[in-house]
Design a protein that fits this description.
4 copies of one chain form a homotetramer.
Chain A lengths: L1 E5 L4 H18 L4 E5 L11 H9 L4 E3 L11 H6 L19 E4 L5 E8 L10 H11 L6 E7 L3 H11 L5 E5 L9 E2 L5 E3 L6 E2 L8 H10 L12 E10 L6 E10 L3 H10 L1
Parallel strand pairs in A: 1-2, 2-3, 5-6, 6-7, 7-9
Antiparallel strand pairs in A: 1-11, 4-5, 8-9, 10-11, 11-12
Helix pairs in contact in A: 1-7
The structure holds fe (ii) ion (FE2) (8 copies).
Chain lengths: ~270, ~270, ~270, ~270
């Protein structure tokens, strides 16, 4: 199967390019499953029920989040009820949301979805290593294809978790830094890995926010509103090819869709 | 002119591939200047006079460092005396080493070299923004080509410094995370930018260190020796094309040289 | 002269005990000057013009702040205009507010007031050591009594700044942790020192906030409103005795005023 | 019963004052149990078997450690074998050492001993809240007197753990900052609490280290050897009075023993 993972969707620009681009990407790139990190989808921070539905309607099959997961409380019922959205598995047991999910891909395969938060340079949280062991043990053994979004700051921690899970999951792909890394690879055990798949939103920005605002605050200490930027919108992600029988990844390809490609993608979606 | 910047050289594997590869790259890629970050060159941390000389002999024209700069005290005389090696400019005034340097490229152009450390998720240090303003003002105005190595952890801080310096320097290229980012670009003002050019050393590792060691310490809290790894050695860097008259960058290209390419590079060097 | 420094005033409970207690303390403890840290005075974070005036009316002669200084933008005009309120001196030059002030004590002495922020475990900021050198050099040499509020997290950094300034200022007293330390002392050079003078606000709390709220968020990751608590309100601070001629401290005494002491203090204020 | 907890013993000066003072304190202050944090006992960092034995011989009944626990690997056999020394309970399961211990006090009561590390501003680690729940459940229910050393940086986290455990343990006393806090209290549920009991070692220092060395490194970035200081040695700790039947604390008293008090203490020890 072919699985597309879309990195942090930031604000309206990110949602727009995802909504317009995903249907065409499914056709054009022959995707069996689309997973997206939506932790910045609502105004740059958090997720709302409306946006959740908008993304699902656009063809996103499963949603992960990150450190901003609970910024908008209205998402709680979605996190409790819907079966295709997960919270980071290394949050406390009492945290709202499910710690893993399974979704059915277009080719019929079941895919396990896990989200984990990094510990380094992040808010205090339990070990993602221990949590990974736990949720992988909980998942039914017939779920061969297993996907992990590792939402982390430090490259060293991402690489270490990737190596730790090599051969046990189909892919460990990172989010949170909002910058795609050029290290996409398949590890010897068959796990696709990339430190960060990058951001889906305005690239004429500082990780999605208005440059002038962030710069003013940095240079003067005056607080400013870090509004979502608008220019040079792109969709970042990676496509992983996975053997459905073994769950092993055989290839990973980085993608970056720009606004000018949207008409062609929309035409492809219509044709199908 | 064409300038190659080589990311963090890690241990013997990193030095070996740099020493063997650089002469051929100069010929093959028509390089006018080679700058390298050598903060991890000595056993994974710091730099020694011998290694400094070895790198210069291989064709490295200027050297930058980072947070590990003073790990080996024997490098102090080199930092004080040599004119092609800089310390981070936002260290205290009293810190050993020069806060900027100029080196002459093969095409005759003078190139200013600056190193700055990030503040986010790093040890306490003064603002790289203020320090950049200061050293750029100190540099002779006829030095049009100006290079900045931003040794930083956080992507947001790297992008912000890049935007802050856009139009004022030829390139702001990052180091420290040891992972190349796929965001190389030339900003509107003519500054080449990339969050991180990546590591020069063993990629079968956790940012250059033995996987088994780092994993054991993470899983058990037992301290282990984080020895430099050995497998899958690569040279990471980026080549920036710069207009000598204006100092504006016109192109940036990411490179990743693997061991199997070394014989061809060595042959190219011999032919020249 | 005798100088009282009051630690972080938190919310309405903190303001109330300060307003009711300070006039009596001035009489009862023969105070020549009262300085207060008010960074948490407005609803637990920041300061407003009204609260500034309320504190000054109660007998607070000078005000310092901390990392929450700009949380309420309405304080900007006060920071720009009033001469008895300072911003941390190691914020950027462009930051709103003055980096030092002089106020006249009841005994006629001029007192220099400085605020500095720590670097360790705080948001990125320039060195408080360099900033201290700069502002002390700027202050008129006839200002012998000099007071420093060091708003910092780490005890090691506080002790180091205290030692660095020993003999150059009358006192280095800490704030920010909201817990008084039992290390008040006069260093050999004549500088009174204490890592933290503690909080003025509700002690039946987690550093001033409702216990149940902070605990729920910690245990479940659900965000809650960290409202200011209400029980067991105390005023924390320290009184430093200083030789007006030399600016040397001769004694430091920790104080903790509880609500039940207010009637006696109010009676003392009335009598005077 | 009366329990003395001694804060971080630093280097030879700390060991010396502990060895000379503890026997006399047991007599003079009628102590039933002495617990000490020894994470800095060996040259300022870590613990060795010899020092472990020296402290036990001096009358220390149980030993806790902290973030520096594994700095000296020779302590591993002691951690594995001895029954009166614990590792932080929120380290990974695989970490060397026991996660709780019981020791018999001089009055015959069994006392449970637990060590926990803070998460805020410390290296990544699992929640001390969850770990506390776990180890308290493991301890035999007839162990009524239960002691927790919370080795943490942030006052807010210390207060929160203290409140979380109020009524469930006899005392939550802090270590790690090396500065005693003036907040010792007994919470409503009967748990004695203090953010930090302070350091046992040289107070003419920066948290135990030579001032000149720490200052040079801070001002110049040059690395120096942070040797243990020598002047003004004190033993810091707190004595908790506990009802043996209920395990509830009834009183807590901060103590600070200076070198000049040692002769009297030694005489008291001899008389007994
Ligand atoms: Fe994030
Ligand atoms: Fe994000
Ligand atoms: Fe490095
Ligand atoms: Fe580095
Ligand atoms: Fe505060
Ligand atoms: Fe603060
Ligand atoms: Fe510690
Ligand atoms: Fe310690």
């Amino acid at each position: 199967m072919r699985l597309l993972f879309i990195g942090d969707i930031v604000g309206r620009p990110g949602r727009d390019i995802a909504r317009r681009g995903v249907p065409g990407l499914i056709v054009d790139r022959q995707l069996d499953l689309v997973i997206a990190n939506a932790e910045n989808a609502a105004g740059g921070s958090g997720l709302t029920p409306e946006i959740y539905k908008e993304l699902v309607a656009a063809g996103v099959d499963a949603i992960t989040l990150g450190d901003h997961i609970y910024r908008r409380r209205e998402i709680f019922p979605i996190l409790q009820r819907e079966e295709n959205i997960v919270r980071p598995a290394n949050l406390p047991d009492e945290a709202v949301g499910r710690s893993w999910a399974t979704v059915k891909a277009r080719n019929g395969s079941l895919v396990g979805v896990v989200s984990l938060l990094g510990q380094l340079y992040m808010k205090p949280i339990d070990s993602p290593f221990t949590a990974a062991d736990r949720v992988l043990a909980e998942m039914p053994s017939d779920v061969k294809v297993r996907f992990v979004d590792f939402h982390a700051e430090a490259t060293g921690e991402a690489q270490l978790l990737g190596r730790f899970l090599d051969g046990r999951v189909s892919a460990v792909l990172g989010t949170h830094t909002h910058v795609p890394t050029a290290d996409e690879t398949v590890f010897p055990g068959g796990t696709a890995f990339q430190c960060d798949v990058g951001m889906t939103g305005p690239f004429d920005s500082v990780i999605g926010r208005r440059i002038d605002r962030v710069l003013e605050t940095r240079l003067t200490a005056n607080p400013t509103a870090f509004d979502v930027a608008t220019g040079d919108v792109r969709l970042s992600g990676s496509i992983v090819t996975i053997d459905d029988e073994t769950g092993k990844a055989t290839a990973i390809e980085r993608i970056c869709v720009r606004e000018e490609e949207l008409p062609a993608l929309e035409a492809a979606a219509k044709r199908s």
